[in-house]
Amino acid sequence: MKIRNIKTFINKLSASLTPSPSGSAGVGLLFLLLTQFSFAQDKKDNIGTEVVNVVKPYTPTISDAFKVKEVPASINTDENAKKENVNYSILPFPVASTFAPAKGNAQGVEKGKQERLFKNYATLGIGNYGRLNAELYVNEDLNNNEYVSGMFRHNSSQGDIKDVLLDNFYYDTKIDLMYGSDEQDMTWNIKAGYQNQIYNWYGLPANFGSTLTPPADMALIYGIKPQQSYNTLTAGGSMAFENGILNDVTIDFTHFTDDFSSAENRFLLAPTFKFDVMDEAIKTKIFVDYIDGSFKKDYSGTNTADIKYGFTNLGIVPSFVMKRDDWTIDIGAGLVYSAGKDNTSSKFYVYPSVKASYNVVSDLMIFYANAIGNLQQNTYKDFVDDNPYVSPTLNIKPTNELFDIQAGLKGKLASTVSYDVKASYIHDENKALFRSNNYTEKDTNANYGFGNSFKVVYDDLTTMRFYGEIKADLAKGVTVEADVTVSSYTKKSEQEAWNLPELQLNGKADFMITDKWFAGVNLFYVGERKDYQLNTDIVYVTAPSPITLDGYFDLNANVRYKHNDRFTAFLKANNILNNDYQKWLNYQVQGFQVMVGGNYKFDF
Q1: Which secondary structure element, helix H or strand E, spans residue 461, and what is its range?
Q2: 555 CB contacts (<8 Å, ≥6 apart)?
Q3: With contact defined as beta carbons under 8 Å apart, do 133 and 158 qualify?
Q4: pTM higher than 0.70 for the full model?
Q5: HSE of 200, CA atoms in CB hemisphere, 13 A
Q6: Nearest-CA neighbor of 510 among 482, 483, 485, 468?
Q7: What are the φ/ψ torsions at residue 551 (nearest 5 degrees)?
Q8: Which of 351, 402, 432, 576 could form a disulfide with 334 if both were Cys (CB 3.0 to 4.6 A apart)?
Q9: Which residues are within 8 A (CB) of 323 and not within 5 positions of it... i.e. 6 or more apart?
Q10: Quick one: 472 exposed, middle or buried, by C-beta within 10 A (0-12, 13-18, 19+)?
Q11: Is residue 562 within 8 Å of residue 477, measured between CB atoms?
């Protein structure tokens, strides 16, 4: 049977299916027919349309309403309708294969080549003015803990400074030896050294010989033998402990002599103790600083006995550190007893020892302040290290550094730019100052008695100082540094703060041009200084004014070529501007200097 209109068919079927005892069979027949129709509907796309006229309108009642379930019944859609089962069968077919999998290898991360480190090196450089620079450093491990090391240094020049009449060469040779051990709970070393320095008092005054007539003036000059030689013997050692009250101890002995029978001995013992009190670390420095020396003559040469000096300083500086949030405070005080030779002058001193810092903005800005004092033990050797042209007739005594108060900020402007700025207020009693010796033009003078040497004078000095520095890594292999120091001095007795500059500038830049080529530039400026000197053979109506030494720039540069991990060649140029300046009165320096050499690193 073929059904043309499904709705007409259902109406006719409903009219014929009235209630009867055989109603159940009618319902079953209806269900069967609907099932067959449903199957046929899935197969046909267009089932037609018909208009149905409703005779009686629908009137809803309360019983027709129902409650919506929270979980609605499942609704059959094309997506969740039951899918027909599909049976698959695979026809096996053998395929020949020649593929053989290779063993897997882990892919490592590529690393940059690490530069090899060497324990020893040798450096040799030669340049104009007969300059020679040589260094040798060796270090050898005897076993897992013990080691020995040695350092040899030599720096010399044959002089030949333009328009200088006296010998002006210099030699500086030094050798140091060390034997030590690094153990689990303790490290220690012992050391010994020797240094020989040869300088010449070549700085004659500009108008030297003005009181003499030729050829007496030149005969006097060529009769001067300006050479001075210094010899230094050192011995000492140190120990440091991981545990216990004794934290470390240092012992040093120095024997210093010259060609004019001057001699000086210094012994320094400095242990440091550390222990805890109520969860606070107490650190105590103790020192014994002994010096004894003598000069054969005074500057006038009229003395009949050696000029002797000596001081023994005993000091203790306890301190403890407090850390609270962003504050770190190191609070302490120093007590020093100083006894002069033969107890001629003895005195107690009390000094502040306070350091504080506050992290304003992490490591970007740190505020710090210090208040430090100390009794500075002045020595003949220290003065020679600062100025090798002093006369062997000095007045030696300690400097009472009453206080050095500082306040500043340091930190980072960026990840590769750091800074440090601070202001200082310093007051010293018996501050040591270098000043030129007066002179005469007599052939009976000592070789340092012709206005070509310096003495030490003392004065109470107050210093206001500003310091600022900046360091930056501008790019890969490019670093720059610069600093400035501005000082103002207030004197008590002396006319000037002799030979102390009010302005100092320093600048430095290093470049990595390639992996093998490197370069560096250094520029510094030292401002004007004051000195004073008289020719006592001349009678002055009006005493001369202090002498002003001009400020000076000094530009230096270097180029380095790294041939391999072991050998690097270098070329250095100093005083590139060829400035004829004076570091000390009457002592002009060498002009443009160039040095070529190499550095070789090695292991045994």
Answers
A1: strand 454-475
A2: 521, 522, 523, 575, 576, 577
A3: no
A4: yes
A5: 22
A6: 482
A7: -70, 160
A8: 351
A9: 329
A10: middle
A11: no
